[in-house]
Amino acid sequence: MSAASDPDRDLLAAEYALGVLDGDAWDRARRLIESDRDFAALAERWHERLSPLLDEVAPVAPDAGLWERIARRLPGNDDMAQVVGLHRRLRAWRAGAVAAAALAAALLLVLGLDLVDRTEMPPSAETARRLLVASLVAQDRSALFVVSLDRGGGSLLVSPAAPPPPPGRSRQLWLLASSGDPRPLGVLRPAGPQRLALAPPVAAAIGEGDSLAISLEPAGGSPTGLPTGPVIATGRLDPV
Amino acid sequence: MSEALLRTLPGREALAEALARVAGGDRGALHFLYRQTSAKLFGVCLRILDNRSEAEDVLQEAYLTIWQKAGSFDPARASPVTWLAAIARNKAIDRRRQRSARQADPLGEEAEEVADPAPSAAARLETADERRLLSECMGALDERQASAIRTAFFEGTTYAELALRQGVPAGTMKSWIRRGLLRLRECLGG
Predict the structure, then answer these.
(1) B157, A20: Cβ pair inside 8 Å?
(2) Chain A environment of B27 (Cβ under 8 Å)
(3) CA distances from A195 to A88, A104, A153, B37, B90 (A)
């Protein structure tokens, strides 16, 4: 909705950005900011228009201890500590062929940004329990694959931190059932994050505590429906 | 990207990059943002609240909100400092509104509006063009429109408070400010 088509709303957005509203008008504007993207965009425009005035505000250093008080209050500490810890572990790897962008993408997928709207609070305890992530680490620590289960979307998000497989080979992901044969979950792309759609019975059955494995197969995956090559990494699906 | 590298980026890009990382849960990036921007944001809160302890409370809340909402920052639509300052200002104004009438200062005796006469180089966050344009457009307004708009921006005063200070009815003050805002919009373009 452009300013021209509803001048009253643009004026309200201006008054909101200026900071001159009170009472009902203030409450109304704040609700609109949260619920109405067009209104929020109008207000943002006004913030930008007025922003040169900020130059006239003298900076004042807050107390030295203030950052600590903020850091202690960052919500979802356990969830974020785990995720940030994973990020640090990814960074500790000898980068080699692994680009920083791939690591960032891996982290974003681990956070399940397809699952959780980034504008919301970090995952609540309940959501965190539903987020299952497996870190599949190669024995020689030359590769790491982060796999997270998007149960609602019936898919797995896979992020590699690894150089591509040797030519003529593909990596394939398997579900290791407690009994019976490994079930194929999909062939991995040589590089970059990807989403593997799960057949509905598999999506329903897969869950916390399940083991996953990656094997090295001929290009295009195992021709037999069972692993034919060496297992290069394994991991377990656990809550974040 | 290392912090040393972050520091070599132009200010705006570094802040936008840091916000993207905060969106990914990077606490170090939030700390970087805090070190770069907290003095400016604290200054903003202090002018609105005129009380150090309250300003500190609000500043904490602001950075927690920045942590939560960093994912919604769009560098194509907004500049980082404007976005950060808007969060701090809104929280400070909200706090000011909640203050009891007893503590309010309707006659403005304490809170005189004093413009920083010579902003330091570090405080120059906007481009020279943007500053000049706003300055010219504000200059084209009636004195009382410009003055009211400036006071509202820096102090977060309500229409009623501004009207009281100027000794005019609230309706008159609303008129001044609204007309001033409309003229600013026309003058600034778009």
Answers:
(1) yes
(2) 71, 74, 80, 84
(3) 23, 16, 10, 38, 40
Distance CA B17, CA A114 (A): 20
Return the residue of B nearest to A7 by Cα. B182
How far is residue B173 CA from its own chain's centroid?
21
Q: What angle do CA B135, B136, B142 make, to 5 degrees?
A: 95
Beta carbons of B78 and A87 less than 8 Å apart: no
Angstroms from B146 CA to nearest CA on chain A:
12
Contact B27 A80 (CB under 8 A): yes
A23, closest residue in chain B (CA to CA): B97
| Class of residue B44 by CB neighbours under 10 A (exposed 0-12, middle 13-18, buried 19+) | buried
ipTM: 0.84
Neighbour-count burial of A185, counting CB atoms closer than 10 A to its CB (0-12 exposed, 13-18 middle, 19+ buried): buried
**Beta carbons of A22 and B159 less than 8 angstroms apart:** yes
Is residue A187 a contact partner of residue A100, using CB atoms and an 8 Å limit? no
Please say whether the beta carbons of A137 and A236 come within 8 A.
no
CB A206 within 8 A of CB A154: no
Say yes or no for a CB contact (<8 Å) between A71 and B48.
Answer: no
A83/B25 CB distance under 8 A: yes
End-to-end Cα distance, chain A? 40
Per-residue pLDDT tens listing for chain A (240 residues): 455 557 789 999 999 999 999 888 998 999 999 899 899 999 999 999 999 999 999 999 999 999 999 998 886 444 444 555 455 544 444 343 344 444 545 555 555 444 333 333 344 444 444 567 888 888 777 788 888 887 666 788 888 888 889 989 999 999 997 778 899 999 998 887 788 888 888 888 888 889 999 999 999 999 999 999 999 999 888 875
Distance from CA of A164 to the nearest CA of B (A): 23
Give the whole-angstrom CA distance, residue A175 versus residue A209. Answer: 11
